[in-house]
Amino acid sequence: MAAYTPMIMQYLAIKEEAKDAFLFFRLGDFYEMFFEDAVNASRELEITLTGREGGGEQKIPMCGVPYHSAENYIVRLVEKGYKVAICEQVEDPSAAKGVVRREIVRIVTPGTVMESKSLEGKSNNFIASVVRAGGMQGLAACDLSTGELYVTSFPEQLEALIDEINVYQPSELVGDGELLEKVKAASSWGRQTPLTPREPMAAERLAGQFGGAELDKLSAARLRAVSVLAGYLDETQKRSLGHVRSITAYEPNQYMILDHYTRRNLELTETVRDRSKKGSLLWLLDRTQTSMGARMLRRWIDKPLLSSKAVEARLDAVETLYLDLILREDIRSELQPIYDLERLVGRVAFGSANGRDLNALRSSLRRIPRLTALCEQSGSQVLQEAVAGSDDCADLADLIETVLVDEPPVAIREGGLIREGYDEYLDQLREASTNGKKWLAELERREREATGIKSLKIGYNKVFGYYLEVSKANIGMLPEGRYERKQTLANAERYVTPELKEKERLILEAEDKMIDLEYERFIELRDRLALHLHRLQKAAAIIAELDAYQSLATVSAERRFTRPKVNENYDLVIEDGRHPVVEAMMDGTPFIANGTALQKDDRFMLLITGPNMAGKSTYMRQVALICIMAQIGCFVPAKSAVIPLIDRIFTRIGAADDLIGGQSTFMVEMKDIQAMTEKATANSLVIIDELGRGTSTGEGMAIAQAVIEYVHHHIGCKALVSTHFHELAHLEESLPSLTNARMAVEEAGDHVTFLRKLVAGAASTSYGIYCARLAGLPQSIIGRAYELLDDAGNAQPLPEPAALTDISELPQQPDKVMESKQIVQLSIFDEPAAAAESEPKGRKATPKAEQVAEQLRKLDLFNITPMQAMQWLNEMKIKLNS
Description:
Elements: H1 6-15, E1 22-27, E2 30-34, H2 35-45, E3 50-52, E4 60-66, H3 70-79, E5 84-89, E6 102-108, E7 127-133, E8 136-143, E9 148-155, H4 158-168, E10 172-175, H5 177-185, E11 195-197, H6 203-210, H7 212-216, H8 220-237, E12 248-249, H9 260-266, H10 281-285, H11 291-302, H12 308-323, H13 325-335, H14 341-350, H15 355-365, H16 368-376, H17 381-387, H18 394-403, H19 424-451, E13 457-461, E14 465-471, E15 484-488, E16 492-496, H20 498-530, H21 533-559, E17 565-567, E18 572-577, H22 580-585, E19 594-598, E20 605-609, H23 616-632, E21 640-644, E22 649-652, H24 665-679, E23 685-688, H25 697-715, E24 718-722, H26 731-734, E25 738-748, E26 751-760, H27 768-774, H28 779-791, H29 833-838, H30 847-858, H31 866-881
Parallel strand pairs: 1-5, 7-10, 9-12, 10-11, 17-21, 20-24, 20-25, 22-23, 23-24
Antiparallel strand pairs: 1-2, 2-4, 3-4, 5-6, 7-8, 8-9, 13-14, 14-16, 15-16, 18-19, 18-21, 25-26
Helix pairs in contact: 11-21, 12-21, 13-16, 13-21, 14-15, 14-21, 15-18, 18-20, 19-20, 27-28
């Protein structure tokens, strides 16, 4: 190392402080990277890798990015899961003796991003910590951009901890190294989140951040979780975190527990297929007008309430807005222009807010009085209490308006920020600058008249200052001895005069002082606002809550949802329930409603059989979603609904394997069932779709029956179970709290229509081969499948698939649904009956006949002329006879 230059030695010393991060080392107008950082950064950022002499035997690998566009490169690295340490010059180069002193001023990590380009407005960006202390596991989660900090604790159960971590979906996880390793190794983790071991913050610094009173309320595990997280934020951000002062502690049993698989299967915030918001419950319910409200609504969906009093309070607020269209629209119109107050406050605290941010803060605060008045006049106790004693922060809005111009520039070091009349000395400097420029214009006029050179002009650049420019063709017209040559151009000469040089000094001195003074006044304003962060955060929280209420009310009114009755009893009764998202995606097509009655004294288990594609999964999901919607305080898609408080929902829907974890589809299913049997209570809701698949028929039926009996006898919770094992229908006779149901099917001639209607009784067939035919499997496969089914003595082939009849056009009479029957499928290519009888049973059609039959099926009879039809028949005859 001794062979390197002093600058490279400095780089290596600073790099030791951030071994796990890319070091952006400021050199002039660039952030440079060296050695391994340079090699890796050139690959990840697709920038040129060069070399630099650094005193060693070989050139040092080097690459760099311009400092003015560095944010874009930092964002790209952070999005890939890397950390970036920003190293700045902290000493005036002109005053430095030797190498300019440099220090790391901030470390940007996936969980500590503050730049707006990296943040999705309607989602939080959480960083979480996990620790162990006092026989408990602690979890703290913070969104640094908004200042939110939540903390809770659990008994030492890893799966429970991971379930809670997944609620926040943190982009970074820190904490006790041993516990992080266990989380990483757990089969239910499956995330690529960066994991960083960290020790707690020093007690004195922690108390300085939050105050002793706030910390005294926390248990040992929660205190350690907050300490580890705060220490990591302090270490990486290296500045005061004035907006992270309040700690929200909660108990896990305050909210419905939804594990990762349940969230995924029910598509609460994103779809299973492409992980997009569209098609999820959040997509349907999100009619928020502000980013704050959108984030709060998402948190409500992630954590449904387990308090009937709290649920009823939300429902009361939603009902008021549901019934009063004018009030709802007035609130929506007031919310719409409000900016993201939470993140604006974060930038003020962080010292990164510019003039436009503060003006956005001001205009948002101006909306609070009107919102407060609307809530006070609403007649709703919940809305009135939400704004009771609220602070409209009018003094802060007035302060911003007094100091800043209406349209400040983005940069805060280039002037043009401070309103005229705010600072007397600044106004004097402006006048001097303005008068100086008027003097320059007058000088230019006089010089043109004195020399007779009409093209003479006064210009300015940062290198030479102000100058007189004369074209070379006119140089002879200048009087001798008065002008001093300053610069020679290809077609002109630039001159100065003693008078111009003196005025230049005065003008530039005034402009420099103006810019410095404006910057100082702006920083003073921002620092004064930073003293009132808690007031601004409270205002933001009130706005977010109102926005979430109006969003639920707007969707409920537009979709004609009904207020549910939420209680702490057992019975779940839904009349004419609908799947909220599927109904919305059907774009006006009527949705077939189905009821649900799971009651303690009657039947609390439903065994559902019926065809593939008939709607079993949709029905079961809709029951779960209606329960979740009710417990977040939203109206539900049903004619009426009585919803008990569900403490946990378990779902096993769809086939999925875990190849990386070495688990088959069947093993994954069994793991889910194991978790259900261990954690479900009588107040839970269990949903199992296609129980027992993935193994032999005999073993699958045995496991399915055993699971059903276990839920019935030992757990006693509300359960919806679907299966293709129709033989299990007999369980209705031996299990008093279980009843059979099926998805109805109507057959009429060669039409088979899935009615999507749940009716009593067990189904006799699953129509699996019929669905395979609809999927487009070759006819040879379909025919062979029917032969094998016929040989097994099950049934005759079902009719040729016709276009599914529109459900809305059918008379909805579930009591008159036709039972499955044998249907003989005729073919124009069958051999004569006598010949057929002499052939062995199961004779196959010839390949040529199959080809002709397939072409006949594709023939468009409504768009063919008689001549074309005769020509086609002739071609087919030739093909059969050849």
